[in-house]
Amino acid sequence: MPEVTPIPLSRLTTLRTGGEPARMIDAPTTDELVAALRDVWASGDDWLVLGGGSNLFVGDEPFDGTVVRVLTQGIERLPSPLPGRARLRVQAGHDWDALVAYAVEAGLGGVEAMSGIPGTVGAAPVQNIGAYGQEIVQTLTEVELLDESTGEVSTVPAAELGLGFRTSVLKHHYGSAPARRAVILTVTLDLPEVGPGARRIAGDQLRTALRLGPDDEVTLAWVRERILETRRSKGMVLDADDPDTYSAGSFFQNAVVSASFARTLPDACPRWPVHPDLDPVLVIPLANFDGYVPPTSTVQSDVKVSAGWLIEHAGVRKGFKLPRSRAGLSTKHALALTNRGSATAAELAELARFIQGRVQSEFGLVLQPEPVLLNVEL
Fold first, then answer.
1. Of 93, 200, 218, 234, which residue is the least packed, with the fewest Cβ within 10 Å?
2. Alpha-carbon gap, residue 205 to 209, rounded angstroms
3. Identified catalytic residue from 23, 87, 166, 226
4. Average pLDDT, stretch 8-13?
5. From 54, 247, 250, 306, the catalytic residue
6. In 3D, which of 330, 280, 323, 275 has the Cα closest to residue 303?
7. Confidence band (pLDDT; 50, 70, 90) for 281?
8. pLDDT digits (tens, 9 = 90+) for 150-161
């Protein structure tokens, strides 16, 4: 594959950090993407697949490897085997929010609450993106993958991706390698055909965010616009004129803890059960029933707690900066570390470590970074 003139990663990532890679390849088609990756893997070079650069924190030193830019585009509408639904097969390089806009315009639900999330479609399943109670795991059917170990393309059902809270078998977690080294080529979603009319909104988290009652009815377009307004107010929609958006979004994950640990946190800390606490159903065969019903046992679900609340109540407020640093918290959102003006990766990492230390000291919890880290340590 022909190489292009390398561009510093500080110009291709929303955190605006990162040195220049040794090599760079642009892949505007799936065939070119597959060929480029096979060539790079065969060479043994270090490599990085780059989409929108919105979930990446890159160190200051030059990257001695090859960056493959995923520039594929396109949405294909397919019939669904389920009544009242439609399938969309989307190229990995397609902009995620452009996909949401397409779905809403077509009257397809299931992704409208994820409006405004930056990045590409191929990156979405890697960390099971989500917002306001919607996650891609709820609508993802399958992906096309190119496996590094075999160089072969395969179609993989969503159930085999290990999708959990901001994770999958494909994600490079901080300090560990992914369980499956592969690159997504296309993503297939199965979405309900809602139509343009108003309807009741399912999900307490989304209704609360939109300030809707259980019986209020609104359109998909209305939901999308209100979500975009909410994200803009938090600096979470990319805007070249707003330094609060020079970030990787939420830098720290909302922590998932045991129910017993959650009880040690202040009652005011927002929290949500990770799994619904369903009433257990006990079935006793009639032939064996002797009049005694044994007590049922339930397993308490894990709890997701607000990292933003923990940060602010550990004394690190919105807009906080360390002395003489060009990195700071967003003035609008305590979870976003921002580049306030040519900050180095070292400055951002110093701020991240400070925040981790404050939260651990105050609440006994170590916050984990959400973006992928390359050539940088916390």
1. 200
2. 6
3. 166
4. 97
5. 250
6. 275
7. low
8. 999 999 999 999
CA angle 263, 274, 261 (to 5 degrees): 20
Q: What pLDDT does 272 receive?
A: 84
Amino acid at the residue 122: G
Q: Look up 370 and say whether it is catalytic.
A: yes
pLDDT bracket for residue 299 (50, 70, 90):
low
Helix H, strand E, coil C: the string for the chain is CCCECCCCHHHCCCCCCCCCEEEEEEECCHHHHHHHHHHHHHHCCEEEEECCCCCEEECCCCEEEEEEEECCCCEEEEECCCCCEEEEEEECCCEHHHHHHHHHHCCECCCHHHCCCCCEHHHCCCCCCEECCEEHHHCEEEEEEEECCCCCEEEEEHHHCCCECCECCCCCCCCCCCCCCEEEEEEEEEEEECCCCCEECCCHHHHHHHCCCCCCEECHHHHHHHHHHHHHHCCCCCCCCCHHHCECCCCECCEEECHHHHCCCCCCCCEEECCCCCCCCCCCCHHHCCCCCCCCCCCCCCEEECHHHHHHHCCCCCCCECCCCCEEECCCCCCCEEECCCCCHHHHHHHHHHHHHHHHHHHCCCCCECCEEECCCC
Residue 166 appears among annotated catalytic residues: yes
Mean pLDDT of the chain: 93
Contacts 24+ apart (CB under 8 A), 355-364: 355/252, 355/311, 355/314, 355/316, 355/329, 356/252, 358/311, 358/314, 358/315, 358/316, 359/307, 359/310, 359/311, 359/314, 361/314, 362/310, 362/313, 362/314, 362/315, 363/265, 363/310, 363/314, 364/264
Task: Output phi, psi for 94, to 5 deg.
Answer: -70, 140
Tell me the β-bridge partners of 190. Answer: 87
The pLDDT value recorded for residue 284 is: 63
Model pTM score: 0.88
Residue owning tokens 């070119």: 32
